[in-house]
Amino acid sequence: MKLSVESKIGELFDDARSKEIVEKHLPGLSDHPMIGMAMGMTLNQIIPFSGGQITPEAIEAIEADLAKLS
Fold first, then answer.
1. CA 57, CA 20: separation in Å to the nearest integer?
2. Collapsing DSSP states into helix, strand and coil, what is residue 28?
3. Is residue 23 part of a domain?
4. Stretch (H or E) spanning 67
5. Which domain holds residue 56?
6. For the purposes of burial, counting CB atoms within 10 Å of the CB of 18, is it exposed (0-12), middle (13-18) or buried (19 or more)?
C-alpha cells in the first residue's frame, strides 16, 4: 500500500520509514499526549486541532518525501 498524507496517522506510524518522515517535518508528533486520539485521522484532518503547529507547507513536504518511498 502506498502511503500518503491521506493515509491514517496510525498507518504512517506503523511504517518506520514514513514515521521518520513525519517526525522529520513535525518533530515530537508521535510523542504528543493527544496523538492516540488522532491515529484514525489523516494529517490534513488534524490541522485544525494543531493550533498552527501543523502547516500546509509541512504537509506538502511530508507528501513529497512519502512519494519517494517505493
1. 17
2. coil
3. yes
4. helix 56-67
5. 9-67
6. buried
- Cβ-proximal residues to 23 (8 Å cutoff; 6+ apart), any chain: 29, 30
- Under a CB-based contact definition with an 8 Å cutoff, are residues 69 and 20 in contact? no
Instruction: Give which of 32, 34, 30, 33 is closest to 10, Cα–Cα.
Output: 30
Which tens digits make up the pLDDT trace of 31-41?
Answer: 999 999 999 99
User: Cα–Cα distance between 22 and 61 in angstroms, integer?
Assistant: 9
pTM for the structure as a whole: 0.91
In whole angstroms, give the CA distance from residue 15 to residue 48. 25
Count up the domains in the chain and report the number.
Answer: 1
Name the packing angle between helices 56-67 and 16-25 (round to 10°): 150
Q: Tell me how many degrees the CA angle 39-66-52 measures, rounded to the nearest 5.
A: 55
C-alpha cell belonging to residue 14: 506503523
